[in-house]
Amino acid sequence: MGFFAVLIPLIYLAPHGSAASVFQTSLNGGHWPTQGLSYCVGFIGNVATFVGADAAVHMSEEIENAALNVPRAIITTMILNGATGYAMVIALLFCLGNVDEALVRSQLHTYEDI
Fold it and tell me: pLDDT under 70 in the chain at which residues?
């Protein structure tokens, strides 16, 4: 429910940028030596959404037909987390506006400021 409580107001109430600003703009705010390294460092936080996927493995002794149900649970969890995460990132990027202004306005609560 929290996902929808954030996503729906963000989509309907926030001003929207262009598709070009979302899909054709690359930022290197960390001043990394290459854009590729900047992307790789940026992916570290996104990988955290998949960290809990192995929770089903730890409960596999208690699951009926574990050889089939545990991999199914892991894959389903990763698909659902990936889809919701992708939707949130795309919505946030369309509503972001000027990144430099958003960072200056609120150093501690940039996400809420958007």
Answer: 49-54, 102-103, 106-114
Comparing C-alpha atoms, which of 85, 90, 87, 88 is closest to residue 23?
90
Distance CA(50)–CA(80), nearest Å, equals 10
pTM exceeding 0.85: no
**CA angle 56-60-63, nearest 5°?**
100
Look at phi and psi of residue 31 and say left if phi exceeds 0, alpha if psi is from -120 to 50, else beta. Answer: left
The token duo for 25 is 């703009």
Evaluate whether 65 touches 78 at the Cβ level (below 8 Å).
Answer: no
Residue with tokens 């960290």: 51
End-to-end CA distance of the chain: 20
**pLDDT at residue number 111:** 64
